Amino acid sequence: MGHLLIPVLVGVTSVAAYLVGAKGLRLSHGCFRKAVRRMLESLGVTLIFLGVNLGAAVIVILAARALTREFVSLYLAADETLLVLSLIQALIFQGWRDLSGANVSRS
User: Fold this and answer.
1) What is the pLDDT of residues 65-80, one digit of tens each?
2) What is the C-alpha to C-alpha distance for residues 77 and 95, in angstroms, rounded to an integer?
3) What are phi and psi of 73, to 5 degrees?
């Protein structure tokens, strides 16, 4: 039962937010699909940044091992902070791209 707490909690608050937005704030139902698409796009950019950051971390750690002859653990790259910082990078990049408007081609 404990493993369901977080998904159920997030599901309930998501439905509540949708109802508040649709009924209380009168947000457009049609824009909801666009918002989900944008979120998925941001998630993809986050994963790209995470992959690049992890790859760079592994290269730096392996280089440090080779150059210093000391053991540097790859577990240093497994810090949860890297995911949060990758998300921040992605959100800034997405915002920058959106604000650039017509200068950016989209598929």
Assistant:
1) 999 988 989 998 898 9
2) 27
3) -75, 140
